[in-house]
Amino acid sequence: MIKKTVLNASEACKDIKNGATIMLGGFGLCGIPENCIEALVNMKINRLICISNNAGVDDFGLGYLLKHKQIKKMISSYVGENEEFERQMLSGELEVDLIPQGSLAERCRAAGAGIPAFYTPAGFGTEVSEGKEVRAFNGKPHILETALNADFAIVKAWKGDTAGNLIYKGTARNFNPLMAMAGKITIAEVEELVAPGDLDPNQIHTPGIFVQRIFEGSNYEKRIEQRTINEK
Amino acid sequence: MGIDKIGIAKRIAQELKNGWYVNLGIGIPTLVANYIPKDINVEFQSENGILGMGPFPAEKNVDADLINAGKQTITALPGAVYFDSSMSFAMIRGKHVQLTVLGAMEVSENGDIANWKIPGKMVKGMGGAMDLVASAENIIVAMMHTNKKGESKLLENCSLPLTGVNCVKKIVTNLAVLNILPNGGFELLERAPGVTVEEIKYATKGKLIVNSSKIPEMQL
Question: Which of B31, B67, B100 has the highest number of chain A CBs within 10 A, making it the mutation to test binding with A?
Answer without folding.
Answer: B67
